[in-house]
Amino acid sequence: MKNKSILFVLALSAGMFVTSCSNDDNEGETIVPIQGKYNLSQTGTIVNGQEVLIDAPENAAGCNRDYLDLRLSNAAVIGDYSGSDCSLTETTGTYVRSHNDLTITVGNISSTSDIMNLTNKELKIKDKTTGVITVYTR
Fold first, then answer.
1. What integer pLDDT is reported at residue 16 of this predicted model?
2. How confident is the model at residue 14 (pLDDT cuts 50, 70, 90)?
3. β partners of residue 90
4. Positive/negative CA dihedral, 92, 38, 113, 61
5. Tens of pLDDT along 84-120?
6. What is d(CA 77, CA 95) in angstroms, rounded to the nearest whole number?
7. pLDDT digits 0-9 by tens, 48-57
8. Residue 15 pLDDT more than 90?
9. What is the spatial distance between Cα 81 and Cα 61, in angstroms, rounded to a whole number?
10. CA–CA separation, 122 vs 32, rounded Å?
11. Which of 10, 53, 80, 119 allows an S-S link to 42, with CB 3.0 to 4.6 Å?
12. Positive/negative CA dihedral, 113, 27, 136, 132
């Protein structure tokens, strides 16, 4: 009876070891869900190999920060506060995430960005066409 128990434990351990060593690498892709509301924080580019970021000039002084709301339904809502009364204009489109690419489409215009960083507190993307880096925070 003791031998059967030991054999069972060894077989179970070997089975767990074999399955845990499978190739489940995510190839550098971040696994944090992208859905959520992100406030526009910084913009910039890469100059001489270094990121140069500044506070986003798109944010109107005295207003809430502009935002990007990526919803579970794949709707993308872009919020823009402007004017002395901080009026909000929301533009709705769609988004698609494919590995570390994020494509946002509004009307007939699409832009694809590399997801440089995605955590529970930050989304940093780099536009593939312009090279502009945009940092959003939650």
1. 52
2. low
3. 79
4. positive
5. 999 999 999 999 999 999 999 999 999 999 999 999 9
6. 9
7. 999 999 999 9
8. no
9. 9
10. 11
11. 53
12. negative
Q: Contacts from 113-117 at CB under 8 Å and sequence distance 24+? A: 115/30, 115/34, 117/30
Q: Which residues contact 65 (CB under 8 A, 6 or more apart)?
A: 39, 40, 41, 56, 59, 81
Cα–Cα distance measured from residue 65 to residue 59, given in angstroms and rounded to the nearest whole number: 5
Where are the extended beta strands (E) located within the chain? 36-47, 50-55, 67-70, 75-82, 87-98, 101-106, 109-118, 122-127, 133-137
Q: From its phi and psi, is residue 15 left (phi > 0), alpha (psi between -120 and 50) or beta?
A: alpha
Tokens encoding 73: 């339904």
pTM of the complete model: 0.76
- Enumerate residues 6+ apart whose C-beta is below 8 A from 128: 101, 111, 112, 113, 114
Question: Using an 8 Å Cβ cutoff, are 128 and 116 in contact?
Answer: no
55's tokens = 């506070």
- What's the whole-number average pLDDT of the chain? 85
* Residue at token pair 């910039």: 44
